[in-house]
Amino acid sequence: MTAARTDDTGDWLVCAGCRTLLYARRFRRHRQVCPDCGHHAPLTAPDRVADLFDEGTARTWEPTATDVDPLGFVDSRPYPQRVVEARARTGLDEGVLCVRGTIAGRSVVAAVMDFRFLGGSLGAAVGERITAAAEAALAQRAPLLLVCASGGARMQEGVVALMQMAKTVAALQALDEAGVLTISLVTDPTYGGVAASFATLADVVIAEPGARLGFAGRRVIEQTIREELPEGFQTAEFLLAHGMLDLIVPRPELRTTIGRLLGAASGGGPRPLRTSPLVTDPTALPERDPWEAVRLARRLGRPTTLDYLTHVVEDFVELHGDRRHGDDPAIVAGLGRLDGRPVAVVGTQKGHDAAALAARGYGMSGPAGYRKAARVMTLAAKLGLPVVTLIDTAGAYPGVAAEEQGQALAIAENIGLMASLPVPVVAVVTGEGGSGGALALAVADRVLACANAVYSVISAEGCASILWKDAAQAPRAAAALQVDARALLRLGIVDGVLPEPGDGADSDHLVAARTLRDAVSAALQGLEGHDGGSLVASRRARFRAYGAETALGAVETGSTAVITDVRESA
Ligand SMILES: [Zn+2]
Question: How far is the CA of 16 from the centre of ligand 1 (A)?
């Protein structure tokens, strides 16, 4: 860690990651990232500002003065003397810079920490500056970026330093209430009181590759519990796998990624007016064998959520993790723009071959996926962004770990959350709409289905096994359950059906994606201008009506048919 630093003045230095001898100027040209091993060496706060902000836009400011030595602290030297030395060594007044400026053309307020200044420790002055930046962001309604690098609270300021955690967190809460985006950029290292306050509480937490983040440091843990810690413990990669980070972004890509996130939090540009391609009359759809529909819906070549995103969602930034246990690859969630309109997108993710399917848990999510979806939908509600969900799942993942982590509760919580989102919500069943695992993403103002999609309370095979004691009776079960798009439209479960190109969406992803874009865009156009309260009221009324006698005689007929059939076969 000590070798590769910006303040090295010699021509050569040694990379702290791979011990390669590097030419100093080349290393600096690479923003202190080793061209051989990718190790990210620390940046000073001024270098970080220069690296992230658009040229010539960054303006620093100094907030109100703070008490420099609340305890009169002395160890081997008086604390004020240490501060004087740190100032002389770094050319900074304190361990953080407050900055206003633009990143990729978008206004942002930032607080940028500098580890060289007493280990980036969080004392009163640092806490004051972080808070001042948050307050400036609130006043300007501009997103807040916090660049973190810290060993933790500053011991020499005792319990006054500890209170800075509460002060900064409260400032972030005010931004939550005001709907202002907060982004934390975790750099190596970020520990203790900074990790346990603003660094991890931001809406979006980005880390540089290899950056370490944690509450207790590795040495403290090893000495306390006397256990060997896993490889890569507390590194960004470890934390991403455990659901604690949204994304890891290499330094050269940070500006673009942060710029996209800032763009998603802004109003967006002009939007083309779309005519809805939806079919809303069930008799306009072909009658067909529901089992045939099930088989079409399961075709491996059908566009996945990521295929749709690639074709029709611009500047998508995928966000990861449930902030509790993990990051479920069966659900993709993030922010982007659809027809110029900032949106949050959440979708289940399958794959086109065996390997891709396995890597994505066959599109069947566990609680971590549903909680990631909830986190992104909550962020959308905070920012006032519409939510678009794409559903293609055989169901929620059936497994021991999923049950241990509360699969049922995660689904229930998502249904509850979606019933209360104060923003427009459009759901599209793009393939299989499998039971509660699908509904957990489908409590929407407009529910749409692709022509070859199905939506069902249980898989046809599952139903056949239970009611006919024979999975081979699946075609019969599919017919009885009325799972195809025509039936769904007739039952009022979906509001419209998206036509598919050729003999199915798998034959032309681009055309399928454009149809989806037009349908969703037109649906969102129709929902614009409604306030949160009226959206929630009509969404709840929609789901209140299912099964109420006046609204849906057809459902009654459907379930009676199943019962009669079973009695006949018994
Ligand atoms: Zn290296």
Answer: 6
Which of the four pLDDT bands, split at 50, 70 and 90, describes residue 550? low
Q: Is the pTM of this model over 0.70?
A: yes
Q: Which two tokens stand for residue 9?
A: 């003045």
d(CA 266, CA 383): 9
Average pLDDT value for residue range 183-200: 98
Using pLDDT thresholds of 50, 70 and 90, give the confidence band for residue 9: low
Q: How far is the CA of 419 from the centre of ligand 1 (A)?
A: 50
- Interatomic CA distance for residues 153 and 169, integer angstroms: 14
| Beta-bridge partners for 12 | 23
Ligand 1: centre distance to CA 30 (Å): 12
Question: E strands along 481-547, which residues?
Answer: 496-498
Q: How far is the CA of 9 from the centre of ligand 1 (A)?
A: 18
Whole-angstrom Cα distance, residue 184 to residue 398? 35
Residue 135 to residue 422: CA distance in whole angstroms: 25
**How far, in Å, is the centroid of ligand 1 from the Cα of 14?**
8
For residues 487-491, give the mean pLDDT. 96
Instruction: Assess contact for 108 and 181: CB atoms under 8 A.
Output: no
109-123 pLDDT per residue, tens? 999 999 999 999 999
From ligand 1's centre to the CA of 85, what distance in Å? 31
pLDDT tens profile 373-390: 999 999 999 999 999 999
Q: How far is the CA of 245 from the centre of ligand 1 (A)?
A: 24
Tell me the CA–centroid distance for residue 90 and ligand 1, in Å. Answer: 25
Distance 21 CA to ligand 1 centre (A): 8
Rounded CA gap, 271 and 262, in Å? Answer: 19
Q: How far is the CA of 236 from the centre of ligand 1 (A)?
A: 17
- Give, in order, the Cα–Cα distances in Å from 446 to each of 11, 204, 388: 63, 28, 10
- Reported as a single tens digit per residue, the pLDDT across 290-317 is 999 999 999 999 999 999 999 999 999 9
CA dist 135 to 68, 138, 144, 175, Å? 22, 5, 9, 8
Residue 442 has pLDDT above 70, yes or no: yes
